[in-house]
Amino acid sequence: MAAVKPEEISHPPMDQLQGLEYCIDSNPSWGETIALGFQHYILALGTAVMIPSFLVPLMGGSDDDKVRVVQTLLFVEGINTLLQTLFGTRLPTVVGGSYAFMVPIISIIHDSSLQRIEDPHLRFLNTMRAVQGAVIVASSIQIILGYSQLWAICSRFFSPLGMVPVIALTGFGLFDRGFPLVGHCVEIGIPMLILFVAFSQYLKNFKIRQQPILERFALLISTTVIWAYAHLLTASGAYKHRPELTQIHCRTDRANLISSAPWIKIPYPLQWGAPTFDAGHAFGMMAAVLVSLIESTGAYKAASRLASATPPPAHVLSRGIGWQGIGILLNGLFGTLTGSTVSVENVGLLGSTRVGSRRVIQISAGFMIFFSMLGKFGALFASIPFPIFAAVYCVLFGLVSSVGLSFLQFTNMNSMRNLFITGVALFLGLSIPEYFREFSAKALHGPAHTRAGWFNDFLNTIFFSSPTVALLVAVFLDNTLDYKDSAKDRGMPWWAKFRTFKGDSRNEEFYTLPFNLNRFFPPS
User: Fold this and answer.
1) Within 13 Å of residue 337, how many CA atoms lie on the same side as its CB?
2) Which of 105, 126, 203, 327 is 20–30 Å from 522 (CA)?
3) Side-chain-side CA neighbours of residue 122 (13 Å)
4) How far apart (Å, rounded) are the C-alpha atoms in residues 213 and 50?
5) Of 446, 133, 55, 103, which Cα lies nearest the Cα of 288?
6) Residues contacting 430, CB < 8 A, separation 6+
7) Nearest in space to 286 (alpha carbons), one of 55, 474, 150, 101
8) Nearest CA to 135 among 322, 321, 336, 297?
9) CA triplet 134, 137, 138: central angle to 5 degrees?
């Protein structure tokens, strides 16, 4: 038997991911682009509805208030996505609401001065203004780190090895928003999961007019089928005698969004009144802004790979963080009840559809803005039951995680040092936030529980985030453990050419600003 050649048992590292139909600057036909943009809009609805649905009732808000917050969040999402794709990193990323802000916002909601307000609507308004003030102040962190290029300087300590746990846990760290939510209504969640996998993977070669319709529009088709099935179950009375919690998760008529939504309503800054400012609230919110920055950094790296682009140079990454800070400032001014981060599920959808086109994401931003103003139509789509979204998250979060693991191809995984760093960072990135979650569920407060509320919020927010813990562990170990003699093992020779804009000729194609703006903002 002939000896096996080395190239037959290994795969050479690839700067850009192969197999995509459309990369960052190539576009499908206009009809297909619009349909794909609408698909990204539908996917973004999950987080946009889930966050206000949880927080607004805690604040004393009504269904009308919830609908206005959802509309406002979608409106600002659309603006932030356009800003990011035009002037930020220019990667095809949807900039949506962030769960990282939940801990400090819940802390504000439980502030004793706000809890004493007896009128529910007045309490809602005062809480909203307090959250707005904290978000506005905290947004300065990303604006300063981004536009001063400080984040670009920090990113010099990153290597392919150090980024693996961060990008991987950007997806894996969201496991509690996957099957645990599917389990709230398995009769629609599991069929959705099976149908989405079947259409996007097993039937991806089914073509109509040379177009892989089932693969490209698996989300739209499977959501339509399962949503109709869920409506049939609701209309037939299948949930009539089921527990209240089951009805909330399974029925298609329990969101109370359509009946509460106005026909036309345009969100505007300071619509809830003048923001109020408190130093303690702002300090706690700053931790959420830092977490959002780290999670977005991981998501940008994943998006560049799934858009078949090169990794964003340090100054492009920093520029994107600066614009994301502007986005968080807009969140505070409009009152969206959360800050901004890159939508991980929409990054995953780039890989699932194999379309990494920037224009598709810009079209989806147009849908967000349009339907946020036409309340009834937007509320119709927003009434899709959460288990349907959760089923899709199971696939898309996993896909983003695997993109993180793919960066291992540029490192030496026969090195015990690299195995140690990767394993410890991944394990602690999952284990520490899980400890904080379990502790909070039992004690009704985080492990950090001193008299200084801002300090508690800061620590609890940082350690609730898997990518943040992974970055702290991985980057520290990677830059302190035998780092001088391990540059090649860490993947630095490959990484070095992408650290500066002029280090690789392809950077100009992917990351140059539009309208010839690079004349005024020359890349470094």
Assistant:
1) 32
2) 327
3) 7
4) 29
5) 103
6) 169, 172, 173, 466
7) 101
8) 336
9) 80
Residue 22 pairs with which residues in a beta bridge? Answer: 355
The percent of residues above 70 in pLDDT, for the chain, comes to 96
521 in helix, strand or coil? coil
C-alpha dist (Å) from residue 98 to 47, 101, 481: 8, 6, 33
Structure tokens at 197: 């996998």
Distances (CA, A) of 84 to 294, 413, 454, 504: 16, 35, 30, 22
Q: What is the pLDDT of residues 453-504, one digit of tens each?
A: 889 999 999 999 999 999 999 999 999 998 778 889 998 888 888 877 777 7
Binned at pLDDT 50, 70 and 90, residue 6 comes out as low
Interatomic CA distance for residues 390 and 182, integer angstroms: 6
Residue 116, classified by CB atoms within 10 Å of its CB into exposed (0-12), middle (13-18) or buried (19+), is exposed
- Sequence-separated (6 or more) residues with CB below 8 Å from residue 429: 165, 169, 172, 173, 466, 467, 469, 470, 473
The Cα–Cα gap between 50 and 308 comes to 31
Question: What span, in angstroms and rounded, lies between the C-alpha atoms of 111 and 278?
Answer: 11
pLDDT confidence bin for 214, thresholds 50/70/90: very high
Contacts of 413 (CB under 8 A, 6+ apart): 419, 422
Can you read off the two tokens belonging to residue 137? 């102040």
Residue in 396, 465, 401, 445 with CA at minimum distance from that of residue 99: 465
Looking at the predicted structure, is the pLDDT value of residue 243 above 60?
yes
Instruction: Pull the structure tokens for residue 437.
Output: 């979650």
Residue identified by tokens 């004793």 is 112
Pairwise CA distance, residues 197 & 191, whole Å: 10
- The number of C-alpha atoms within 13 Å of 300 and in the hemisphere containing its C-beta is 28
Q: What's the CA gap between 466 and 9, in Å, rounded? A: 34
User: Cα torsion at 497, 498, 504, 507 (round to 10°)?
Assistant: -170
Helix (H) or strand (E) segment spanning residue 340:
strand 340-342
Q: State how far the Cα of 304 lies from the Cα of 364, in Å rounded to an integer.
A: 18
pLDDT at site 205: 84
Q: How many helices (H) and strands (E) does the chain have?
A: 25, 2
**Band (508; pLDDT cuts 50, 70, 90):** confident
Strands 340-342 and 95-97: antiparallel
What predicted TM-score, i.e. pTM, was given to this entire model?
0.93
Quick one: average pLDDT of 437-451?
Answer: 88
- Give residue 495's pLDDT: 85
H or E element: which one contains 97? Answer: strand 95-97
